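hiii, so i know i said id send this last week but things got crazy w the move. better late than never?? heres the sequnce for the chain we talked about at the cafe, plus the structure i predicted for it. fair warning i was half asleep when i ran it
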Amino acid sequence: MFFRNLVPYRLDIKQIDKSSLNAQTLGEALSAAPFEPTLPSQMESLGWVSTLGELLVHEASGAMRIALMQETRNVPASVVKDRVEERAAEIAVRESREVGNREKREMKEAMLIELLPQAFPRRQRITACVDPVSGWLWVDSSSFKRAEILTGQLREALGSLPVSSPKPKANPDAKMTHWLLDTPPEHFELGGACRLVDPLEGGTV
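okay and structure toks below
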């Protein structure tokens, strides 16, 4: 169960019946919402997929690995804007009038529906590990937003999912700033460059 990235959540043990949260019950819950490809007029589709062979849940030592598939169809905003402007210009010439902002907004919605079937679908898998024994939910993602997509779908499948982000004893920003200004802890060595990433969107700064 190796993950390349990690967004941890703490399971509220007091609100979870660990004996009922097992591979069988979790598999039955996820099987009610399997992944299905997007329809031509559909912008997004979410559903659970197998994580090993045909199993929706792979269990090992009490920890359960699951996977959510997300498929999206995206029409670039610039393409929609250009098409709307073209159509508005045609109406202006044909009917000798200007197209107002309200009408353009309606045209934009209609154009999006018209272009959506032509958009290529894009799939992304979000993997997670549910460990009720130790009280953790681990999501393999560098984006908090994508991790929240999985927890939302898991909460919907189970009916409830009492989780929260772990709270560190010390503020990580203040702690690491102190390392830079003073001396890093033992076994840490500061390099000469760094890569900044937006923790909410996962985008490189």
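btw The chain has a mean pLDDT of 88. thought thatd interest u
miss u guys!!
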